[in-house]
Every structure is written in C-alpha cells, then in structure tokens.
Fold these 2 entries.
Entry 1:
Amino acid sequence: MAYTWMKAVQILKFSKSTPFALVQQCMAHRDSFKASEIEYHYTSNPKPKPANSDFCKFGTNFTDHMLMVDWDDVKGWEIPVIKPIEDVGLHPAASVLQFSTELYEGLKAYRTARNRINIFRPMENMKRMKYTAERACLPVFDKQEVINCICELVRVDKEWVPYSQKASLYIRPFMIGTEISLALKRPNTAKFLCIMCPVGPYFATGTFSPISLLADPSYVRAGKGGVGAYKLGSNYGPTIMVQAEAASRGCQQVLWLYGKEEKITEVGTMNFFMFWINENGDKELATMPLDEGIVLSGVTRRSLIDLARQWGEFKVTERKITMNDVVMGLNENRVLEMFGTGTACVVCPIDRILYKDTNLHIPTMENGPYVAGRFYKELADIQYGRVSHEWAYTTVEEY
C-alpha cells in the first residue's frame, strides 16, 4: 500500500531529494530509512545542561531531541524524524508490552581537545543490532544509514557532548514491536528510536576503581540455544533481582557462571577478562569464547582482543575459564588481573569475588593493574582523539 500524496508532499517539504525520486520512494516498500530524508523539528524549550558532566548519573539526564522512525510490514520504513524528546504512546496490547519484542544498543560520543566529536566503532554496534533484529523478528535496516541518522542526532544536540575527558554522551538506539495484538507472532509494526544522555563514570566508585562480585552458581544469565548472545532487554531485566542479591551481600556486581563446570561467562552486563599465568606457565589474556552463544559479542571486548594481539607480548585466547581455574590460579599465585569490559564502564578492575561464602581476593590493583590500565588508557586515547585511529568515527568536525 503506497503513502498518500499528502504524505509525499510532507516528505518533499523536509527533504533535499528530487520530487520524482520522492514519488518513487513513496510508491515502494522501503527496506531502510535514510539520513538525507530526516525531518527536523527543533525544541522551543531547550533544557539546561549539566553544570558538571563528570558527575552525571548514568542514564538519567536526557538531551533535548530524539530520533524516531516508524515501520510496518506493508510500507516498510517511514521517514526518520528528529524531534523534541517526548513520551511514546503505546496501546496496552502492544507487542513490546506483552512479549518483550525489543532490542537495544549502546555506544558513546566523545569530544576531543580540538572540539571534534567522535563515536567509537559504531559499525560494530550496527552489525550486532542488525543480527539481533533478525533474531527478535524485528525489521532490519541499512547499517550505514542508521549511523548517519545517529550522527545527525548527535550534531543537533552537539552541545550536550561533555567538554570533558572523563565524561561522554551515551547513545541508546533501540527498537520495539508495536503491533496491537495479544497473539504471539512476528509484529507487523515497529518503531526505531534513539535517545542520548551525558554520562560520567558508570560505577559510583569512580572511573577506574575496582568492584566486587557475587559468584553464585544457582543463578544463570543465559544457556545454550538461547538468546544470551543478542542485545535484548529481556536478557537483562531478569538479572535485576540477582543484582539486588549481590548488593545485599556486599557486592557490586554478579559474576555469571554456567553449567556443572561453572564456566565464567560475563560480569554483570560486561564481558569478562582474566590476565594470568596459565596451566602451561604462559602469560595469557583469556576471555570466554562466543561459540556457545551464551556471551555477548561486546565491541569493547573485540577491541581489547585486537589491541592485545597487536601488542604481541602475551598469549591472547578465547577459551573456557571456570571457577576451578580461578581458585587454583589464586592458590598458586598465577592470577594477575581480572576486569570487566563494556561501553558503559570501558574497563573495570575486579578485586574480590564472593564464592560459596568465601571471599576470594583478586590481586588486580596490586599488579598495577598493568594490563587493565594500559587497555583503559589506549582506548581513552582513541576515544578522546588523543591519538589518530580508524576506530574513532568522526561525527562532527571541529567547530
């Protein structure tokens, strides 16, 4: 079913495309939305910006504008709109409310000393978002066009990108199924949205302070054949109770274990790394492999693996790590550092694990931490433009 001519006139009003091209677009099923067609509706009531972004609590102070695009299975994607951030109206029977048909991504924009704004490796996020959409039965899109649209949103709200080397602008693109139906099926309508907020350190302890973990094998984050490898909100909501249990026992995060072997999979919402002297006497950076489908393919995870292999100073292995490996390694003084990695915290040292009512001290901070600290510095140098690197995607040129 084609767009109405009234809609076509509206598109023409806000677009730089030729009238003939727009008519063609309106008559066809649209497989993706495009940044060149964005409609802009600017706020007339801009909000005050934080006095000091370094102390912005994660995910609570939002910028003036958002990006929204509607989709249905007949017309495909509609025209993207950047408009003042507002509530999104949903019918009580909307698919996302009934069956959690939702996915999201998380990436960050950084302001350099030369007043350029960079996003860190956005194509890696878009690759993951697209295969997650396929798994969630939500519509797919052109990855580069989504990046272009997000860049436009950042440009519109560029003054919200912190003038700081400790803070950044967190970007949250997400998609929801909106079909009004109580039937369990692929939704025939959906919305793509993107919102943003300035953020300081993720943990209250600070930018690079160690955290403690509860390792309880009775709780499982994801299993084989499930959706643990996908960026779905439904993977994370059920972990809130376990996080509360960890807090009640004096820990800040959860160390997720899996199976009889108690494989270490993730740390809270982060990927897990251990730097140690392995069973063969080799220094090794180890992290859980992705082949079992129970670990998220983190962008920061991939970046650390790539950096470490470029250094060429120790083994870098995607391998199974169990709690038995950790306990034996600690008893034999072979564990050097442990840390979690993710977009929100970047690199987060670990100094304690509560396991079977025993506190295991992890000597991360006593060992520098050499590896975790080096990773953190090198990533920050790339993100804040202190060094030139292909992973820094320029969103806004110097202005």
Note: The longest strand covers residues 189-199.
Entry 2:
Amino acid sequence: MEEDLVVNMEDEDDDDEERGGQWGAGELQWLQEECVSSGSPAERSGHIAITDQCCMFIWGGYKNADGDAADLYLPKSEVWVFSMETRRWGVRRAEGEVPSSMSGSCAACVDGVLYVFGGHHARGNTNQVYRLPLRAPVLRWHRMRDLTGLAPTCKDKLGCWVHRNRLVYFGGYGYIAPPGHRGAFELDENSVMGNHAGRGWNNHIHLLDLETHSWTQPVTKGNAPSPRAAHACATIANRGFVFGGRYQDHRLNDLYCINLDSWEWSEMYVCVCVCVCCRCALTDPSPVCFRCVPQHGPVGRSWHSLTAVSPDHLFLFGGFTTSRETLSDAWIYCISENQWKLFKHEHTERPRLWHTACLGADGEVFVFGGCANNLLSHQQAAHSNELLIFTVQPKPLLRLCVDVAVQHRSRLQLQWDVLPKALLLQLQRRSPAEP
C-alpha cells in the first residue's frame, strides 16, 4: 500500500439508477477529428490510462484543491483523449452509470472497451467493475451487475494482466478478506482507527472472465510474491510480470513472473557468480559485489510504472523509495538475458510517482501525470499534467519519413497530393493547425 490521502469529492452523488442504452459501433475517426482541443487535462496523480488504436484515454485521479482545502478528485464525467498520431488532446463527456470520482483504480482495455475495477473514493474502497466502450459515438458507462462467483475485496493500488479475454487482478490494499479467499493478507495496524474497518496488503489473484461474467480464483504453484500494493504489472504473451510495490514499511525491488495458463509463479533471479575480492555469492554478473562497487539494478520502489515494450523487454520508470525519494530513473529488463539495464533519457529532472505509462505504436512510451515530489510529506504535492515521451525502440522507416515531411511541410506540401490517400490523411493530421 501507500498511505491513503484524504480527498473531497467534487460531486458526491452516487447514482445507482439503471440507465439503459445500447452501445453503438464506431471507428476512432471521430476521436481523431475531435482531439483538437486547445486545452489539456488538469494535473493529477492516481489516475488511470489505457490505449486503444492510436489514442490514449485518461480518467480519474486527484489534484490539489485551491487554498487550504483538502485534495480534490477530478470530475468523474471527463474522459481525456490524447491522439498519439496528431499529438493533440481532446475531452469527452461520458454518460450512463458513471463511476464515483476515484484514485488508485485498475484499468484495462479489451477489444475497444475500457474496464475499471476498484479504487478509493470519499467513502472508502470499492470492488465494483465498470465498462466503457471507447469506439462508440457517445461514451456511456455501464456498471457490471450480473457478475457471479467470489469477487475480490474492496481495494485500490492493485495490478492487472489481460489474457484470453480474462482480466487477472493481483494484490492491492483494502479490507480484510472474508473466508474463502485464496492468498495471504497482512493487516496494516495503522489503518485500525476508531470505527474504521482495518485494511492491509494482499497477494490475492482474481480472474474476471469477460465471456461468462464470472469471478474465479486459480490455484497457483510455486512461491508467490509477498502481499503488496502500489506495485506495477505488465503482460507479455501468457506471462504476467510484477515488480516492486509496498509491503508494510518496505518498498520492494523483486521481479516475479506467473504463467497465466499453468498459474505457476517464478521469481526472476539474475545470474549468480562469485566476487573476486571477498568470494561472496553475487546476484549481479559483475566480478565484484556491492561492498566493492555500487550495486546495479532498480532500487525498491512503489507507485512506479512497468510497460511491456517488446516480446522480450519491459520498461520501468519512476516511483517512490523506502526513504521517500521520488525517482526519475528508467530501466529496461531483458527477459531472455535476465538482466536489468539502465535506460538513458532526457527526463532525468522530472521525477514521477503514481503516474501512468502507455506504449504507442512506434516504440514510444507515453508517461502522463503523477507527482514530482514526496507525496506523503506536509508540503504541497507537485502534481503534474506533463506528458513525457520515451523512445525505447528505433522508429519505423514510415514514421521517420512522416516526421521529415511534416517538419519540412512548407517545402513539400505541394507534392503531397500525389501520395496515397491514407498517407496523405496521416500527414494532414500530423500537421500543425492553421493559425
């Protein structure tokens, strides 16, 4: 977990009334055309972000309120959309059974539908699931009420993997699980105050089958990770990865992998060798140990991001250490080599925690929002609405050509008409709007 932050709801109504309506079918063309807003999202932390086709969708989170008031959740009806093609923001107003304004929710996108589970709102944690079809002309939320099976407990700051049309939720910070839940739970003694129900960390796994609308818990094998929250998850093929997170007073730097078909856990240990100086066993392939040279690899952290950027690589950015330092380092983990490598980038002066990270189509990771200082200190939180872009793979040749054509638009535009229609449209969308 990370400590809960006292927040005020901008709109505390909790409308549970069923509002019917059918999901429309549509393309993302209307989104691309409307992502021309001159504005941008408000600064925020604890929000969610997912991608669908060429767009990144942002919802929820909270920011500083004006004056000495408590922190403020962002408007629950707003869904911000960033076109990764045109590099422009737009905002959509959602209707229907809109979730309460929240932070720490868990989001996933499957076949153009956004699924949101859990989170923390003004009255505590929730375990409700909402779906939002993103390709419809009108964005309309729907609360999934017909779910069967044993649902997860109410919690936030959890992780998710997507596999075979199933959402697989892991860990989090929330209320004590009733009998019948598989996995471990560790009570946070600091959460037991007055009439408030105790909460803590868990390592539960719950599957939501999107075809049968049913909850189940798998029987796992191997040594499972310790209970944790504010960790980060990523999916590659049938493997789910989880790195770090907070457990009690510690922020972890362990990396685990679970096979999403066999449900077997594996901790990803790096190569072991012997130090030539003191003959101790090493977990780093260098010939000397941490007592002889600085250690290599990410330090323990929570509130970071982990993004699958290729079938063999994970991208780790930012987070918050046990010593309450906000981080700006980035790392690449190579699965086949079982090795962490420090990733050099231009955003080293922009530390972030509780941000989001999404992979674009051309090997770029888009990091949005988050906090740039110690979120748990008494000073005002430095929430951000900045978009940081990390190029983690060489850009495709087509992307490089489009970039050059847009850069030299004044010289080349007269020749654009001879291009194929799809390429012409791409150039026009990428070009700056006329003043």
Note: The CA atoms of residues 253 and 300 lie 4 Å apart.
